[in-house]
Amino acid sequence: MKKITILGSTGSIGVQSLAVCKNLGYEIVALSANSSIDQFEAQVREFSPQYAVIADEFAYKKFADRISDLPVKVLCGVEGLCEIAALSQNDLVLNAIVGIAGLRPTIAALQAGHDVALANKESLVAGGKLVTELAQKNQVRILPVDSEHSAIFQCLNGFEGRCKPKKLILTASGGPFFGKKRDELQNVALTDALNHPNWSMGAKITIDSATLMNKGLEVMEAVWLFGMHPQDIEIVIQRESIVHSAVEFSDNSVIAQLGVPDMKIPIQYALTYPERHPCEVPRLSLKEIATLTFYEPDTETFECLSACIEAITRGGLYPAVVNGANEQAVKLFLAGKISFLQIGELVHRSLNEIDCSMEQYDLDDVFRADRAARDFILREVM
Ligand code: NAD
Ligand code: MG
Question: How many CA atoms are closer than 13 Å to the CA of 306, on its beta-carbon side?
Answer without folding.
Answer: 12
